[in-house]
Amino acid sequence: MNSPILTCILLLILPSCLFSQSGAGPRHDSFIVVPLGVKGGLDESNLSAYMVAPAGHEDYICLDAGTLYAGIQKAVDNGAFSGSVSKILRGHIKGYCISHPHLDHVAGLIINSPDDTAKTIYGMPHTLKVLEEKYFTWAAWANFADAGEAPALKKYHYAPMQAGQEIQLTGTGMQVTAFPLSHGEPYESSAFLIRKGDAYLLYLGDTGADTIEHAGKLAKLWQVTGPLIRQGKLRAIFIETSFSNQQPERLLFGHLTPRLLMDELKRLEQIAGEAPMRDLPVVITHRKPSGEQENIIRQELEAGNLLHVRLIFPDQGVAIHL
User: In this structure, how many other beta carbons lie within 10 angstroms of the beta carbon of residue 113?
Assistant: First the structure.
């Protein structure tokens, strides 16, 4: 067989996934993400929560914790995990990064706390303050944390994060940096930039668009994120799209629509560059399941995807390899 024919065959059979987004060389999975909850409301068994670990490992951090038990059971049923729900909850989740303290992001953490094991809760000070003063109290539930109303049971350790400062995620081999987001002023949310070696994953809690919030917080986040995309180091962006384009701006309450998301990604492209944005995995979180709205959101996102990012609509309990 002559070399030109051999070359053509190799080009046909070589998987495109072996190359990085920047085309700079071979790429392998860096993270495994198991969605425990993907919705933005109504269904209490499927609220925002994403387990993340380095590829090939079983030591996870949970990004938000709206749903835990039901999501882990779904993941076990789908083959993402083996063993009991209790084993996964107690042994494989090493800690929680909570983006903000709204119930659809913390309800699973609170409800499952009696059966959980000792762990760290990472979050910006405003988030941990609400957990301490409103949820982990003896009037509302029980104080399973190490600060707040006495007696403190000290199962959970609060780890306040400072914006832009990377810290270690204990027991996972990963690091995290927090960034502030605007969730309908004066309320705040957070984004978490997870790192393992030179690979990154960006998870945003609930956020409004800069054009609506007028706080410029996404613009600052894109300044950090853009160079990582350009260098082929960012494996995915997890970002919300709560409402369809028909939702009036005055009723967004610090959330995104497909149009607003694509506008923000265009601003990110100006920093990252057009070629690196193409096929970048963008995982759509926090869709609110009201009537046909979820389907409409998906249709509007696909129709408006002029940047040709790889839109991923996660399913509860189905692992994502990035």
Answer: 21
